[in-house]
Amino acid sequence: MTDGEKELTPWAALDKETQTRLRLDYQAELDANPRTCSLDEKMARFTEWLAGRGVSFTMDDLRRR
Question: How far apart are CA 56 and CA 9, in angstroms?
């Protein structure tokens, strides 16, 4: 980690209420962007959006659901 970078909180470490709130907040981002059927693109977009909020998300998190 370099100066100015902060450690991201893993998605799995968040409580269900926080995860739900983030999913609901992300809906506005989905509505503002072009649709895609690509799971890779969906993951990249969600992962980047969450990172901007201090949260990390991986394919393992997707499989835990």
Answer: 6
Q: What share of the chain is helix, strand, coil (3-state, %, to 5)?
A: 60, 5, 35
Decide if 20 is inside a domain: no
Domain encompassing residue 60: 38-65
Per residue in 35-51, pLDDT (tens digit) is 999 999 999 999 999 99
The C-alpha atoms of residue 49 and residue 43 are separated, in whole angstroms, by: 10
Domain-located, residue 44: yes
- Indicate yes or no: pTM above 0.90: no
User: In which element (H, E) is residue 65 found?
Assistant: none
Q: What whole-number distance in Å separates Cα of residue 61 and Cα of residue 39?
A: 14
Q: Does residue 24 lie within any of the structural domains?
A: no
